[in-house]
């Protein structure tokens, strides 16, 4: 009986105890349709309806054509059925137990990689944590997601099983025709109710019967990696651990596979509650695809949020992209879908086939995927670089422990803002290319030679169109696949850290691209975006706006930021387009936007999201720096007590004013001299980044060199002006940022599809410009006055700001002691000035640290060279007690340092300051009197 039965059931069967002489019968079903593999549809715009799709070529067994709306599956086109009885007193083990006692309840270990304790820590900013489940603080670097066990359905007390012939199967063991029809259409909302292992009533009242239903599809799609049965099944109701014997077409011997539907829920409920609360920071370990082991069985767990659709299936290379193969379990109260598929692993391409309420079927990417195909292909990829689900020895081995410890200490002692921060902005795909278009990199030695302390990458999250520079994202959890794998990016960050260079990235939570296979209308209805286009669309940019009102979207965005900081050791986030998040009417006409509940234009949900993001980052990652690209006069962007809580704000006003001034003819600069000095009126309100960024050297705006003059300005004068611009930028309070190519004075504006014109850097004047920038940044890094007091009001004083006729500005930078003072003088006129008087606070010998007209920088040597000393005279100027008479070169810049006392005198000054501080502490005074309020304490 066993041989004949097994011959008939050549496709699939339940693996029985070898001692038993019985087997289960099944019938076969081959694919009636398949959905376009994303890698073969570069446009990714076609939406398919399974009722109009043609059948794939291949073997059909009484198949019902889905193009016939009146057709219903007949008895031949069924989901496979096999049955066994459960009889007490018989020998155990006929359905393989996999070492699990069927009389016990399997207990989940409760980790899942996400902490569940409620967050009760007081918020140090204006953000106040909302009630509900929250992440446990201080779990940032514990990037481990344990999944040792999986929740099972309630176990029954039967412990002995025996396989019986199929003719004893009761009628109610069959699947109803309507449910079978939905399964065939990949539209069944609850596949676990039909597939897998189920108890049924037996004709013999003394016995209870178990039916195992499995659905098999042969992979015949040409893009599939292998040919064979593609579906396993799942134990949703009966806790039997069993295997299936599967013999594919043309195969001589059956293969053992695990049934997808024999596994219970792999995503615990409390984790989904955390996700639904809006504050799930570790959501990268919860959603998406992860390689895990369940009861000794290796496979991949999938989880996705799609609350509005009817059915979601996992489709991929292993099942021919057929939506009937792996329909997912819906967690109704959370709008999530999950499924564990045994037997697959890293490198498989996949997506989610969604059946929407309007009847359409389409394939979407995984929003939480950690790898994607290289554009224009769009499939998600099961990542083999997912360190949270790998053994310690298999993870990427970091070698930046010294850097990370230093960063943490700076954050915990609140000294990060005292550190130098010279930022080099890079669009990595166009940084340096070989002749064949491959991406090359000499980035680390270049940064070291130029004395930059940090590099900021334009967005590296996955995006389909390189021309968007990464600002129109689709995959917020995956590095841009054109540049390599996640481990490749980890290696780059690791290498930079070992060279003592910090890494910032642009993060884009404001909007996303509207490609049909991406996040837009993810489940057939507005999901990640606002439903009303007046809120959910940026018409000017052609993008969709994230719905900050939905908690699940907030978890998605917060989790993405957390993911980059934890998984890739990123040191800072520059949040893009903050103004568009803060204002509901940003770049919108009247009638195209909706006011908030108070009738105003502030987006209250976006504000609270930014506050929480900063709270989370600073709480969980001490020493990480956050920046806002915010172009309006919104107050409190960097206010940690009552504002948004950023560490710094881009000073776009300074950038626009300064470049606008330089573009004026010299005779007109006198009329707009206030563009150079206006910053002094608002500088104390925030903490700043001073950018000369990519935005100003693209889209017809020309290069920085183009802006350093007007029509007819000689090239040599433009180079001199550019040197003075950098001297002005680095001398002013705020962290300087320079876009790639600016250090060599690239002549053309930036093109994202071309490398920087590095050959221009070999020209003499440009080479000397590069040396000037390097020396400037070297001075910036070593002189405390130029960086340590950037955020303090007492750190900056004008010494000459009203000389509009001569186009000269001079200012003083200070820190702690008078002998640290640095004087900066900038001349934006093509005329040199000899014995130009500049007032200073200290008498004696001032050292000329840098002169942009020095021979070293291909200058004409107007005045004294680097390292020279200049004596002050009595009499002063503009209220200052002393005066320096300087030779100021045309379009030139000078840096001078205050007179230095002897070593003994310097130690005496420092010692007296320390005694004074200790005396104040003894008297209980928090700050010094007589003009020293807010000055930093003297360190030992």
Automatic annotation (TrEMBL):
<dbReference type="GO" id="GO:0005829">
    <property type="term" value="C:cytosol"/>
</dbReference>
<feature type="domain" description="Glycosyl hydrolase family 13 catalytic">
    <location>
        <begin position="425"/>
        <end position="787"/>
    </location>
</feature>
<dbReference type="GO" id="GO:0043169">
    <property type="term" value="F:cation binding"/>
</dbReference>
<dbReference type="InterPro" id="IPR006407">
    <property type="entry name" value="GlgB"/>
</dbReference>
<keyword id="KW-0119">Carbohydrate metabolism</keyword>
<dbReference type="InterPro" id="IPR044143">
    <property type="entry name" value="GlgB_N_E_set_prok"/>
</dbReference>
<keyword id="KW-0320">Glycogen biosynthesis</keyword>
<feature type="compositionally biased region" description="Polar residues">
    <location>
        <begin position="25"/>
        <end position="39"/>
    </location>
</feature>
<dbReference type="InterPro" id="IPR017853">
    <property type="entry name" value="GH"/>
</dbReference>
<dbReference type="Pfam" id="PF02806">
    <property type="entry name" value="Alpha-amylase_C"/>
</dbReference>
<feature type="compositionally biased region" description="Polar residues">
    <location>
        <begin position="930"/>
        <end position="940"/>
    </location>
</feature>
<keyword id="KW-0808">Transferase</keyword>
<comment type="pathway">
    <text>Glycan biosynthesis; glycogen biosynthesis.</text>
</comment>
<dbReference type="InterPro" id="IPR006047">
    <property type="entry name" value="GH13_cat_dom"/>
</dbReference>
<dbReference type="GO" id="GO:0003844">
    <property type="term" value="F:1,4-alpha-glucan branching enzyme activity"/>
</dbReference>
<dbReference type="Pfam" id="PF00128">
    <property type="entry name" value="Alpha-amylase"/>
</dbReference>
<dbReference type="InterPro" id="IPR013780">
    <property type="entry name" value="Glyco_hydro_b"/>
</dbReference>
<dbReference type="Pfam" id="PF02922">
    <property type="entry name" value="CBM_48"/>
</dbReference>
<dbReference type="GO" id="GO:0004553">
    <property type="term" value="F:hydrolase activity, hydrolyzing O-glycosyl compounds"/>
</dbReference>
<dbReference type="InterPro" id="IPR013783">
    <property type="entry name" value="Ig-like_fold"/>
</dbReference>
<dbReference type="InterPro" id="IPR006048">
    <property type="entry name" value="A-amylase/branching_C"/>
</dbReference>
<feature type="region of interest" description="Disordered">
    <location>
        <begin position="915"/>
        <end position="940"/>
    </location>
</feature>
<feature type="compositionally biased region" description="Basic and acidic residues">
    <location>
        <begin position="8"/>
        <end position="24"/>
    </location>
</feature>
<feature type="region of interest" description="Disordered">
    <location>
        <begin position="95"/>
        <end position="139"/>
    </location>
</feature>
<keyword id="KW-0321">Glycogen metabolism</keyword>
<dbReference type="GO" id="GO:0005978">
    <property type="term" value="P:glycogen biosynthetic process"/>
</dbReference>
<comment type="similarity">
    <text>Belongs to the glycosyl hydrolase 13 family. GlgB subfamily.</text>
</comment>
<feature type="compositionally biased region" description="Basic and acidic residues">
    <location>
        <begin position="915"/>
        <end position="928"/>
    </location>
</feature>
<dbReference type="InterPro" id="IPR004193">
    <property type="entry name" value="Glyco_hydro_13_N"/>
</dbReference>
<protein>
    <recommendedName>
        <fullName>1,4-alpha-glucan branching enzyme</fullName>
        <ecNumber>2.4.1.18</ecNumber>
    </recommendedName>
</protein>
<feature type="region of interest" description="Disordered">
    <location>
        <begin position="1"/>
        <end position="80"/>
    </location>
</feature>
